[in-house]
C-alpha cells in the first residue's frame, strides 16, 4: 500500500499526516504551548501510597501528580525479580514501545514504596482531562530498530513481523549482541535490517541509558531526566517505514534535521526525503486540510447514503450506525447488512484518524440473522487489525451492540483541536481559540504574499484576540517580520468566536 508522510512545520505547531493511497489515516499534532509528556523520564518523589487501590501518586513536576500502579514498579532486589517472574511474559503479543502489562502481582505496593521515596519513572500515558499522567518505572527507550528495556532481562520481536525465519534471525542477533541483564525488542522497522545497523543502534541506546542514569543521580527531585524526541523526529523514527514511499516536509530547518537523523539511523531511506518549497501550503497541496476540517464533526456520511454518529463522553465513546438515505434494492436484511459492513470500514478509519481510545460502544443496526452478526464482527476485527494501537473486541450482542477497547496514551484529536462551547455551557464543542488563531496565521501567511498591502487588519472575537496578543504575540511578530507588514488585531464582541475577517490595507 503506497504511503506518504507529510509534515507541516510552523513556529507555533507541527502537524504530521500519514497518507495511504492519498487518504489521511493518521494525524498527529504537537504545539509549542502544549508539548506532550509521553516518553519523558522524571526523577520523582512518592507523595502518597494507596494500599486500597494498590497504587501511588508521584510528584514529577507537572501540574498534577502522576499515577503509578503496583505492576508498573521495578525494583533491583533479587527477591522482587523472582516474584515478578518476568521471564514468563509474552513480549511479542504486546505493543512494541510499551510492552509490559501484567496480571495481578503476588506483592503489595505498601511493601515496595513509602511516602517521600525517590523513584525514576517514565510517562506511559499523558494527562487526559482531569486525570494526571500515568507513569511506570519499567523504562523503555525506543530507537528505530530496537526498544531498550533496561529493567527487563528478555528479548522479544514485534508481533507485526510475521516471517518466522526473520523473527529467529533477529532474536539470535540480539541475543548474541546484548549485555546480560538488558532487554531488547526488535521493532517492526528492524525487519531486514543488517547486523551492523542493529549493533550500532544497540550501542547508542545503551550509551543513552548510561547518560540517563548519571543525570538522574545528580539532579534534584522532582526533575526532568530525559525528554523524548519532538514530533518531527518521532514521526521519522516511528512512521517512516519501508512502506512509506516518500516523506515531504515544508521547513528547511526540519528538513536538515530529518536528513541528519536518517543518515545516522536509516540511511537507505535518504532518497525518499523531500523538501517542499512551493507557494501553496503543503496540507492544501496534498488535500489534507479539507480532510481535517471534517474529522471534528459528529456525523460521518457513508457512500451508500447511511451515516455514523460519534459521541464522546468522559468515560467512553459511543458510535451509532444509521441507514440514513440508503433504502437498498431488495430485502431489508440485506440493506442493513450492507450498511453495517460499510460502517465497519469507516469506524476503523475514524478510530485511527481521530485517535479515539478507551472504551468504545458501537450500536450497529439490529440484525436478526446470527450469521450476519458474525460477519460484521469478523469484518470489524479484520479492519482494526491494521491499527498499530492494540484493540480488544467482544462479540456482538443480540441487539447489535459491540463493546471494544482501544489503547489510549494521548489525547484524541477532538480534545486537542476543540474545547467545550461557552455559548451552550459545554453541551457541544467549538474549535479551540488556539486552533482558530493558528488557522488565521496560516491564512495570513498564504495570502499576504500576493496582497498589495503594507498593513493587515485581523478582526476576531475578543477571546481569540486576547489569546493572540497575550500568548501568541511572538508568533504574530514572526509573521510581521517574515511578511514585512504591520499586523493589527481588532477585537469585535459581536463576532462569533470561530469567525474572523482579514483586511489587507495598501
UniProtKB/TrEMBL annotation:
Top-level taxon in the UniProt lineage: Bacteria
Membrane-spanning ranges: none
Annotated coiled-coil segments of the chain: none
InterPro entries according to UniProt: NA-bd_OB-fold (IPR012340), RNA-bd_AU-1/RNase_E/G (IPR019307), RNase_E/G (IPR004659), RNase_E_G_thioredoxin-like (IPR048583)
GO biological process, one term: rRNA processing
Residue ranges constituting the RNase E/G thioredoxin-like domain according to the UniProt record: 420-502
UniProt domain RNA-binding protein AU-1/Ribonuclease E/G: residue ranges: 140-408
The keyword Glycoprotein is annotated on this UniProt entry: no
MF-aspect GO terms: hydrolase activity; metal ion binding; RNA binding; RNA nuclease activity
Pfam families, A to Z: RNase_E_G, RNase_E_G_Thio
Cofactor(s), names only, from the UniProt record: Mg(2+)
Cellular compartments per GO CC: cytoplasm
Record keywords, A-Z: Cytoplasm, Hydrolase, Magnesium, Metal-binding, Nuclease, RNA-binding
NCBIfam families linked to this entry: RNaseEG
Protein name according to UniProt: Cytoplasmic axial filament protein CafA and Ribonuclease G
Origin species: Dissulfuribacter thermophilus
Amino acid at each position: 500500500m503506497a504511503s506518504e508522510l507529510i509534515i507541516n512545520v510552523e513556529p507555533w505547531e507541527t502537524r504530521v499526516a500519514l497518507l495511504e493511497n492519498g487518504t489521511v489515516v493518521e494525524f498527529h499534532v504537537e504545539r509549542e504551548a502544549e508539548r506532550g509528556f509521553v516518553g519523558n523520564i522524571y526523577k520523582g518523589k512518592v507523595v502518597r501510597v494507596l494500599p486500597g487501590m494498590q497504587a501511588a501518586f508521584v510528584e514529577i513536576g507537572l501540574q498534577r501528580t502522576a499515577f503509578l500502579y503496583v505492576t508498573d514498579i521495578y525494583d533491583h532486589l533479587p527477591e522482587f525479580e523472582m516474584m515478578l517472574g518476568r521471564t514468563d511474559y509474552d513480549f511479542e503479543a504486546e505493543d512494541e514501545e510499551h510492552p509490559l502489562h501484567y496480571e495481578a502481582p503476588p506483592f503489595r505496593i505498601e511493601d515496595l514504596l513509602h511516602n517521600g521515596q525517590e523513584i525514576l519513572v517514565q510517562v506511559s500515558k499523558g494527562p487526559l482531562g482531569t486525570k494526571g499522567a500515568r507513569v511506570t518505572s519499567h523504562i523503555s527507550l525506543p530507537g528505530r530498530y530496537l526498544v531498550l528495556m533496561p529493567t527487563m532481562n528478555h528479548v522479544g520481536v514485534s508481533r507485526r513481523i510475521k516471517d518466522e525465519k526473520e523473527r529467529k534471525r533477529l532474536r539470535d542477533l540480539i541475543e548474541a549482541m546484548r549485555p546480560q541483564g538488558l532487554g531488547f525488542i526488535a521493532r517492526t522497522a528492524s525487519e531486514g535490517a543488517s547486523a551492523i545497523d542493529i549493533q550500532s543502534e544497540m550501542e547508542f541506546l545503551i550509551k543513552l541509558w548510561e547518560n540517563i542514569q548519571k543525570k538522574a543521580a545528580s539532579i534534584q527531585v522532582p526533575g526532568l531526566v530525559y525528554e523524548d524526541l519532538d514530533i518531527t523526529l518521532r514521526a521519522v523514527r516511528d512512521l517512516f517505514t519501508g512502506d512509506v514511499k516518500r516523506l515531504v516536509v515544508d521547513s528547511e530547518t526540519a528538513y536538515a534535521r530529518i536528513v541528519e537523523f536518517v543518515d545516522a539511523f536509516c540511511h537507505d531511506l535518504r532518497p525518499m526525503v523531500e523538501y517542499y518549497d512551493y507557494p501553496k501550503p503543503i496540507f492544501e497541496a496534498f488535500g489534507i486540510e479539507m480532510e481535517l476540517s471534517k474529522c471534528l464533526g459528529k456525523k460521518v456520511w457513508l457512500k451508500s447514503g447511511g451515516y455514523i454518529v460519534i459521541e464522546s463522553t468522559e468515560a467512553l465513546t459511543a458510535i451509532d450506525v444509521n441507514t440514513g438515505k440508503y433504502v437498498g434494492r431488495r430485502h431489508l436484511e440485506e440493506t442493513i447488512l450492507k450498511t453495517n459492513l460499510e460502517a465497519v470500514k469507516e469506524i476503523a478509519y475514524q478510530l485511527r484518524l481521530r485517535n479515539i481510545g478507551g472504551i468504545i460502544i458501537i450500536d450497529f443496526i439490529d440484525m436478526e440473522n446470527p450469521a450476519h452478526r458474525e460477519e460484521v464482527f469478523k469484518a470489524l476485527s479484520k479492519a482494526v487489525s491494521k491499527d498499530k494501537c492494540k484493540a480488544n473486541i467482544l462479540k456482538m450482542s443480540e441487539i447489535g451492540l459491540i463493546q471494544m477497547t482501544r489503547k489510549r496514551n494521548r489525547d484524541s484529536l477532538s480534545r486537542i483541536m476543540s474545547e467545550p462551547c461557552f455559548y451552550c455551557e459545554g453541551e457541544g464543542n467549538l474549535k479551540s481559540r488556539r486552533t482558530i488563531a493558528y488557522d488565521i496565521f496560516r491564512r495570513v501567511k498564504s495570502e499576504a504574499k500576493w496582497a498589495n498591502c503594507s498593513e493587515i487588519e485581523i478582526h476576531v472575537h475578543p477571546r481569540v484576540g486576547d489569546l493572540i496578543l497575550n500568548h501568541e504575540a511572538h508568533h504574530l511578530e514572526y509573521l510581521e517580520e517574515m511578511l514585512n507588514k504591520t499586523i493589527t488585531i481588532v477585537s469585535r464582541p459581536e463576532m462569533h468566536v470561530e469567525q474572523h475577517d482579514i483586511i489587507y490595507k495598501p
